[in-house]
Specification:
- The complex is a heterodimer of chains A (about 350) and B (about 300).
- With about 350 residues, chain A is α+β, with helices and mostly antiparallel strands.
- Chain A folds into two domains: about 230 residues, Rossmann fold (3-Layer(aba) Sandwich), CATH 3.40.50; about 110 residues, no CATH class.
- Chain A contains nine helices and 20 strands.
- The model of chain A has no long low-confidence stretch (mean pLDDT about 90).
- Chain B is mainly alpha-helical and about 300 residues long.
- Chain B has a single domain, classed as MetI-like fold (Orthogonal Bundle), CATH 1.10.3720.
- The chains are: A alpha+beta (about 350), B mainly alpha (about 300).
């Protein structure tokens, strides 16, 4: 976080229990004014519960929520300067696009012309031609259009912080990518603080200034996307980032370890010494693995059989088998094709030892 | 095997299958609904106090209706039905909301409890109220024994008729309302609340319009049923109020004037239909169901 900016939102030791089940466990973080912050976690990680507490739909069992230094634990959603874009979007099906966007202004008692002007502006900002969409029924809008209406409606509330509960998850990949970029643009141009919740770290990486990764109600790691990518704190975070190779290793003294593939153990060299007997995971990215040519050496090398190849455009992804039941993912440029049996190698510096 | 297609003797096309499966209902409606209705309408045009259908039609009965005070009983029926609808809406909406959104196992219990009461005939249930409210009945007797209060019969007035009607027609309002309230997505309500709306504003701008199909269906059911009500006014109301339904009944029974009874029935069916269609036009069901924009 940029230390010069005052936190707009402060979450201090927030815990939420439902009976005996702890959904969110002692979570603390801060969001700076104007930041795009993302909470990422698999389903059941407590991210939606955390979000519902932040907007006021649930009350924390313990801990404090502060907006601009003021504790808001007991403030209901309609009294908070925050607004949420729901996963279902929760548009008002009985109203037109225009009336949906104007809703928070109507509630505030704004006059007809003021409401219309503002709705017109917001629809334009979100690339919805007001002449076409103002009187259109929301139920007749496409998925992407509905997203934009939901965002326009939230912006009309003029909140200090805008929360998003995976609103893009129901869209197809192309539209999702486009809207991710638009969302980032809108965040930049409106200078609003956005707090986004998603289960996709990829989505989080594209848009966010900072990311917090949740597992079972606890924040595992928090930081800038490139920081997390470069140095995942543990195997959970690494696995969450997408296709990576995580090898089960047991330290064998010094900078060596045994890799248990299930059928056979391979001795490996480690990038750093480890206490003998310690069980860890060795992270190797698909792009760090390469097929060794005759006579070529690397920090580690294992014989593999190439099972499948998938074209990723400029690159090719290989699924290779070390022993039956144990496969690795390799990504190489198109020029370096390989097939059949090969020797797979990687440099020590490209591998990381992680806690599991 | 021959190359020629075997000649089709008989085929069940989709149209024929559809017509066949619709025919039992069509026949039932034709003989059980349309034909009697047409009989009633035609009987209303026969000369008074006759029992022949093959006579020259006349408007004599309708003249009688407009010359006499039948409009009073029509107004009573319409008024009592309207009051019943309003009271039941106020009573049932909160309960329906709780049943749809708050109670868990309680909803099933209330549903069974209310549905079970329908197994007992309406008249018997109304006589239950009579025992409760008559002089020295359950209410009066208890007040006298416990507090020494002597009260007269609580029966035979308009409020007790309304109470009886509300009691009898409650299920017909409650269950459609539960379905209506269920149609309002929780997140839509939460979104409105999140966008600054107060509880009352959420109710007025979100809950009510989105549950309107249930409100309309419940109100129409209760209105149509209670406008033709006869037992409540007779059993609980004594002779205090004469509804149009009891007027019609007495024309067919004591007065033996079938044509006049038929004319009254026809007139009342037309009136009720007009009221219902006016209500339906006012609240366009398609709009309520979100198929059309509101403006």
């Amino acid at each position: 976080m940029d230390e010069s900016a005052a936190p707009i939102l402060e979450v201090a030791g927030v815990t939420k229990r439902f009976g005996k089940f702890t959904a969110v466990n002692d979570v603390s973080f801060q969001i700076a004014d104007g930041e795009f912050f993302t909470l990422v976690g698999p389903s059941g990680s407590g991210k939606t519960t955390l979000l519902r507490m932040l907007v006021g739909m649930e009350k924390p069992t313990e801990g404090a929520l502060k907006i601009r230094g003021q504790t808001v634990n007991d403030l209901p959603p309609n009294k908070r300067p925050t607004c949420m874009v729901f996963q279902s979007l929760a548009l008002f099906p009985h109203m037109t696009v225009g009336k949906n966007v104007e809703f928070p202004l109507t509630i505030r008692g704004a006059g007809e012309s003021e409401r219309r002007t503002r709705a017109w502006e917001l629809l334009k900002l979100l690339h919805l031609d007001p002449n076409r969409y103002y009187n259109k029924n929301v139920t007749q809008c496409s998925g992407g259009e509905r997203q934009r209406v939901a965002l326009a409606r939230a912006l009309a509330y003029d909140p200090d912080i805008l929360f998003f509960d995976e609103p893009l998850s129901a869209l197809d990949a192309r539209l999702r990518k486009m809207l991710q970029k638009e969302l980032k643009d809108i965040q930049r141009s409106t200078k609003k603080t956005f707090c986004y919740v998603t289960h996709s770290l990829e989505e989080a990486m594209v848009m966010s200034d900072r990311v917090a990764i949740l597992r079972a109600g606890v924040i595992e790691q928090i930081g800038r996307p490139d920081e997390i990518y470069a140095a995942p704190k543990n195997a959970f975070v690494a696995e969450f980032m997408g296709e990576v190779n995580l090898l089960d290793i047991t330290a064998a003294g010094g900078a060596t370890a045994n890799w248990d593939t299930g059928r056979k153990t391979y001795p490996l060299n480690l990038p750093a010494p480890l206490e003998p007997g310690a069980a860890r995971k060795l992270l190797i990215r698909p792009e760090s693995l390469r097929f060794l040519k005759e006579g070529e050496t690397a920090g580690n090398a294992v014989p593999v059989k190439i099972l499948n190849e998938f074209s990723l455009g400029s690159r090719i992804q290989y699924h290779v088998e070390v022993v039956p039941g144990c496969t690795l993912t390799v990504e190489r440029l198109r020029e370096e094709r390989a097939s059949g049996e090969a020797l797979l190698g990687w440099e020590l510096a490209d591998s990381q030892i992680l806690e599991s | 095997m021959s190359d020629k297609q075997p000649k089709k003797k008989f085929s069940f096309g989709p149209g024929l299958v559809g017509a066949l499966s619709a025919s039992p209902f069509a026949l039932l409606m034709l003989f059980g609904f349309v034909a009697p209705l047409l009989c009633v309408v035609w009987f209303g045009l026969m000369p008074p106090k006759t029992f022949e259908l093959l006579q020259a039609p006349t408007l004599e009965n309708y003249r009688t209706i407009f010359e006499q005070t039948y409009f009073k009983s029509i107004m009573w029926s319409l008024g009592l039905a309207a009051v019943t609808v309003v009271i039941l809406l106020a009573v049932c909406y909160p309960l329906a909301f709780a049943m749809a959104k708050i109670f868990r196992s309680g909803t099933a219990f209330i549903t069974y409890a209310i549905a079970t009461s329908l197994f007992v005939s309406e008249n018997i249930r109304l006589f239950g109220w009579v025992i409760g409210f008559m002089k020295k009945g359950v209410v009066g007797g208890l007040l006298e024994t416990w507090f020494g209060l002597q009260i007269d019969s609580l029966l035979y007035n308009v409020p007790v008729i309304v109470l009886g009607m509300c009691y009898v027609y409650l299920p017909f309002m409650l269950f459609p309302l539960v379905l209506g309230v269920n149609m309002v997505p929780d997140q839509v309500r939460e979104a409105a609340f999140d966008l600054g709306a107060s509880r009352w504003q959420v109710f007025r701008k979100i809950d009510l319009p989105l549950s309107m199909p249930g409100v309309m269906i419940g109100s129409l059911l209760v209105f149509v049923l209670s406008v033709g009500a006869i037992s409540e006014a007779k059993i609980l109301g004594g002779q205090k109020v004469v509804t149009i339904a009891s007027d019609i009944e007495s024309e067919f029974t004591y007065a033996q004037n079938w044509p006049l009874g038929s004319a009254l029935s026809t007139l009342f069916i037309v009136l009720t239909t007009i009221v219902v269609f006016l209500a339906l036009a006012r609240f366009d069901l398609e709009k309520l169901l979100g198929k059309k924009p509101s403006e």
